[in-house]
Write a structure and sequence with these properties.
single chain; 247 residues; Thiol Ester Dehydrase, Chain A; eleven-stranded antiparallel sheet
Length: 247
C-alpha cells in the first residue's frame, strides 16, 4: 500500500521568465509547498513537530528532472510521498504532471533540526512517521554529495537580503536555485535551451547580511556552482543541466 498526497497549482506570471518558462526557483517553491501540505496531511507537519519536539523540517539535498519546460498557464499536478527515513535523514519523492502528461520527477532529502540549537533528530525518534511511506511508488534514486571540479571561477560575491529569508529566519531553499541560475547566466541562454534539471546541496544556513561567493565551472556533466562564505566554508553547491527544448 502506498500513501501519497496530490497538490495542484497553476504556473502563473510570478513563476515564469521572459520566455514563459517556469523558473527553477518557482518549481522548487511548488515542490516545497506540496511537501509542506503533505506533511501536515500525514500528521507530521511543522506546527505539530514544533509543539512536540521543538523541531522543523530542513531541506538537505534536492534533485529534479524535467521532460520539457513548464509553461505559463499550465496546471501542474504534483504527487508526493514520504519514502522513509534512516538515521537523521528522510527521503521525499515527487512525480509531476500537466493535464495528465508525465513531465518530470524530483527527489529530496530532509532532516529534522531543533529550532533552538539546530541539533538533528533521528527519524526513529518521531513515531508520527510510522506507516506513512510511499510503498511501491518510492523511487530508488539516492542523492549523494556532489563532487565539484577543482578549478572554478569566481563570478559574483552576493549579499543575502531580507527578501531571501523565510519563516525559519534563514535564506529559503528556493533562492539557491536563483543564485545558481544567475551565476551561470541563464538569461544568456539560446531561446531553445532550458534548465532541464538541477541538484542542490544545502550545507550551511545563510542569513540576511551575509556574503556568499559564487564559483562556477562547466564540464561534460553540466554546470557546477559552489557557494562559499568569507572563511571558505561551503554554504551550498549545485549542478545544473541544460537541454535543448524539442517539445
Amino acid at each position: 500500500m502506498s500513501v501519497w498526497f496530490e497538490y495542484k497549482t497553476v504556473i502563473d506570471t510570478r513563476d515564469v521568465d521572459g520566455r514563459g518558462h517556469c523558473r527553477p526557483s518557482a518549481l522548487l517553491g511548488h515542490l516545497q509547498e506540496a511537501a509542506t501540505l503533505a506533511a501536515e496531511d500525514m500528521g507530521f507537519g511543522r506546527d505539530l513537530l514544533m509543539e512536540r519536539y521543538g523541531a522543523f523540517w530542513m531541506l538537505a539535498r534536492l534533485w529534479y528532472r524535467l521532460e520539457r519546460p513548464l509553461r505559463w498557464g499550465e496546471e501542474l499536478t504534483i504527487h508526493t510521498w514520504h519514502r522513509g527515513g534512516k538515521g537523521v535523514s528522510s527521503y521525499r519523492d515527487f512525480d509531476l504532471y500537466v493535464n495528465g502528461e508525465y513531465v518530470g520527477e524530483a527527489v529530496s532529502v530532509w532532516v529534522l533540526a531543533q529550532m533552538q540549537d539546530r541539533r538533528m533528530l533521528r527519524m526513529s525518534q518521531i513515531p508520527e512517521l510510522e506507516g506513512t511511506q510511499g510503498g511501491e511508488r518510492s523511487k530508488a534514486r539516492l542523492l549523494s554529495k556532489l563532487r565539484l571540479p577543482e578549478q572554478m571561477e569566481l563570478v559574483e560575491r552576493r549579499l543575502m537580503h531580507y527578501s531571501d529569508t523565510d519563516i525559519n529566519d534563514h535564506v529559503n531553499n528556493t533562492r539557491y536555485a536563483d543564485f545558481a541560475c544567475d551565476a551561470i547566466r541563464v538569461d544568456r541562454l539560446p531561446g531553445d535551451v532550458f534548465v532541464a534539471g538541477m541538484q542542490l546541496g544545502y550545507h550551511a544556513e545563510c542569513r540576511a547580511g551575509e556574503y556568499v561567493d559564487m564559483l562556477v565551472t562547466r564540464s561534460e556533466e553540466g554546470w557546477f556552482v559552489h557557494g562559499i562564505d568569507e572563511t571558505g566554508k561551503t554554504r551550498f553547491d549545485a549542478q545544473v543541466f541544460l537541454v535543448q527544448d524539442i517539445s
